[in-house]
Prior knowledge:
- The protein has about 120 residues and is mainly α.
- It contains three helices and no strands.
- Helix 1 packs antiparallel against helix 2 (about 50-85).
Amino acid sequence: MDDTIIEHAANYELIEIINKGIAYAIIIAGLLSVIFIFVGGISFILSGGQEDKIKNAVSTIRYAIIGLIITVLAVVIVGTVGNALGLDIIKYINFNDIIENIRSIPGGGSSGIDSLD
């Protein structure tokens, strides 16, 4: 009977790791999309009317928006599939929990994260 409890605990931890990994990947993808929209906008402003730079900036913005749309769709799809499988993945997409998890990593709290409070 003790082996069954240990196996259940190991499976629970694996599910938690998978849930948090998916949630963090979605958050990182969303943040990168927004950052690249800003980078494309700044490149567009600083293009100085040069056609090549404008095309590069517009394509950066376009692909960043596509990435953001895909990220939002991924949240919907992952949430739907997770609910079908009995996993509550969406509850892990919480910025404060992510910051706390980063702080719990040895050496993670001293890298400028403290300034967010």
